[in-house]
């Protein structure tokens, strides 16, 4: 019985580590930390500040893609947004909205 409990704990332990890893890859906070925080800061206040509702951020990010939004350094952002999927744009926008 003791052995069974130990193996169950091990199996679930390994499983939860794996599922956490898979989840982190598609998590807005981790995406932001990995790909955006270097320039915009951990809370979006550094260099060009990022701030707004999830919809506003999403609109700006998509605007960088289709050229309808951006300032003098828009090429920087266009290159970054190009590497994000629609789903990742949504996730990271929702995360930025929590900075308000
Ligand atoms: C290499 C530095 C760099 C990285 C990395 C970066 N940005 Fe930017 N970001 C900029 C610069 C520079 C601007 C201003 C561009 C312009 O002139 O429009 C900007 C502008 C923005 C804006 C528009 C701000 C506004 O209100 O006009 C948003 C939103 C944004 N970034 C989100 C992100 C997100 C989300 C990520 C990560 C996926 C990211 N950025 C990664 C440099 C960076």
Explain what the structure shows.
It comes from Desulfovibrio litoralis DSM 11393. This is Cytochrome c. Residues 1-24 form the signal peptide. Keywords: Heme, Iron, Metal-binding, Signal. This protein is an all-alpha fold and 100 residues long. Helices cover 69% and strands 0% of the residues. It has helices at residues 2-25, 28-35, 37-40, 54-66, 74-81, 86-97. Helix 2 (28-35) crosses helix 6 (86-97), helix 4 packs across helix 5 and helix 4 packs across helix 6 (86-97). It starts with a helix and ends with a helix. The structure holds heme C. Residues 35-36, 38-40, 48, 50, 57, 60-61, 70-74, 76-77, 80, 84, 92 line the site of heme C.
In brief:
GO terms for molecular function: electron transfer activity; heme binding; metal ion binding. With 100 residues, this protein is mainly alpha-helical. It has helices at 2-25, 28-35, 37-40, 54-66, 74-81, 86-97.
Features:
metal-binding, signal, 100 residues, heme binding, Cytochrome c, Cytochrome Bc1 Complex, Chain D, domain 2, 69% helix, binds heme C, Cyt_c-like_dom_sf
How would you summarize the topology of this molecule?
Blueprint: H1 2-25, H2 28-35, H3 37-40, H4 54-66, H5 74-81, H6 86-97
The protein binds heme C (HEC).
Heme C binds at residues 35-36, 38-40, 48, 50, 57, 60-61, 70-74, 76-77, 80, 84, 92.
Sketch the major β-sheet: none
Note the run of SSEs as H and E: HHHHHH
Instruction: Please identify the top-level CATH class.
Output: Mainly Alpha
CATH architecture, please?
Answer: Orthogonal Bundle
Main structural class: mainly alpha
Can you tell me the CATH superfamily? Cytochrome c-like domain
Number of DSSP-assigned strands: 0
């Amino acid at each position: 019985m003791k052995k069974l409990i130990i193996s169950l704990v091990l199996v679930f332990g390994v499983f939860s580590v794996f599922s956490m890893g898979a989840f982190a890859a598609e998590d807005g906070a981790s995406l932001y930390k990995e790909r955006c925080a270097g320039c915009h800061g951990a809370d979006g206040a550094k260099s060009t500040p990022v701030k707004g509702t999830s919809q506003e951020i999403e609109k700006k990010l998509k605007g960088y893609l289709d050229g309808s939004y951006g300032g003098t350094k828009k090429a920087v952002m266009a290159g970054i947004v190009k590497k994000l999927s629609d789903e990742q744009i949504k996730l990271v926008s929702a995360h930025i909205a929590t900075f308000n």
